[in-house]
Design brief:
The protein is of the alpha+beta class. The protein is built from 11 helices and 20 strands. The strands form 5 sheets. Strands 1-20-19-3-2 form a 5-stranded antiparallel β-sheet, covered by helices on one side. β2 and β3 form a beta hairpin.
Length: about 450
Amino acid sequence: MADEKRTLSPMDRVWNFFISVKLAIITLIVLAVTSILGTIIEQNQPPEKYHQIYEDWAFALMDRINLFDMYHSVWFLFILVLFTVNLSCCTIDRFPRMLKVVRNPRTKLDGSLEKSLSLSDRWKRKGTLPEWAGKYAEALSGSFAKPRVTEDGGEVHLYAETGVASRFGVYVTHLSIIIIFIGAILGNVLGFKGYVNIPEGEMISKVPVRGGIQMQDLGFTVRCNAFSLETYPSGQPKAYKSDLSVIDGGREVIRKTIVVNDPLQYKGIWFYQASYGQAGGATAKVTVARKDGTPMGALALAANEPVPIAGYGIVRGVNYEQNFQGKGPALQVVVEKPGQPAVSFWLFQGDPDLDRQRSDSLVFSFGGLSSKMFTGLQVAKDPGVNIVWLGCSMMVIGLIMAFFLSHQRVWVRLAQGADGRVEVVLAGSASRNRLAFEKRFEKLQTGVKAAGQ
């Protein structure tokens, strides 16, 4: 054996390495362990979050070996490629031999084959070989499968088989795994996943990925037209949705309101509703009218931010109470006019005409608080996902072929005996589920024996 190993060419050694079962087991174990790590360690989070969990030395080490973005790391990609190549080489190495067995089955029931089969029976019949060969061929066709007829050395051999496809089940499964891994590799190399917050009325064209370290250009713009939130009486969120528009080439090409599990998709990029929040502080809506009731518009007052009114002065919203003096929501307003001391007063949301008592040239009414919201989107692109789904479908087919089908074979040998009668041998085998085949063989045995009687 040592001499044989020394005489192997470098190409043979490389080939033997890639068809090794040990290599397959090792790569599967490594993939399982790394996948567990990828589940335990949250992926693609901001560095600040990792610093809160891990010590500086641990963070530096884990970041250096890409444990925070493991599925896009070079070493994880190498493991995927290595396993894919290993499984491909194993399949290529073993498939020709299996194909040869299927295309060139042993159609003759010789003595050595008969001894290796556990299911067999013998009997004799009066008549001629052609006569009984025809009868048994007809019986097999009716109850099992149409047989091949072979004549050799004065003997007639009948061979019939069903479930040949089960022999290919393991190779279909192998191919499905290879296809799944190819899809995973494509998604790893060409895809991305990130999270982005878009305030109402604003738009983005880039998405932070790799934990916010890199920015991915989308090639188009996404705008959040509006965000809405429904709550239960307790205040808990019931449903939230985002009105999104995709702008490409300067025009709106898609507009869709998305909710959880109903994403927007454009050019292979998916936008999932993931979260929401308040973008900045709340603003108070205050309407302004002249003393005679002529409306002058509305003001959006942020906390203590001055808002000028031409020819009048500056208005500030300085305080808000949810239930001021038991009269409900109220806003404290400060008015600063040129050359006059500042005036402070309260506006009640439930009493819009209260400010008329102030005897000023302008009347203010408080319409409540409004807060600008942002929608949190998970943005993902995976060009290999359809390939993965194809592989999964093929795997289901391969597993059905491998585990629920059985390659069943039946032989009948007829020979002219010394006493002038025809000696008959019936034998059979199955690649799996032999117990069920034994019951079928018993019925087949009864039917074949009864043929021609």
